[in-house]
Fold this sequence. Notes:
CATH architecture: 2-Layer Sandwich
Structural class: alpha+beta
InterPro entries: DUF167, YggU-like_sf
Number of helices: 1
CATH topology: Conserved Hypothetical Protein Mth637, Chain: A
Order of helices and strands: EEEHEE
Pfam family, one: DUF167
Family: Belongs to the UPF0235 family.
CATH superfamily: YggU-like
Helix content: 10-25%
CATH class: Alpha Beta
Radius of gyration: 11 Å
Amino acid sequence: xxxxxxVKPGSRKGPLVEASADGLTVYVRERAVDxxxxxxxxxxxxxxxxxxxxxxxxxGGHSSRIKRVEVDE
Length: 73
């Protein structure tokens, strides 16, 4: 299943996933440096959906706060 995800890196709220009409918002504590925030997003979404991290893939928006993510449930 594909999702549009808004990422909030460096957030004190994180790790947290909130659903809205626009899609999902993922709050992570990691900063957007050297892919740390992307890796955290994959881990948080895998935990949220109850799947292994290898089943979550960022398919678009690697350097953007708005990402397209595919979850193989």
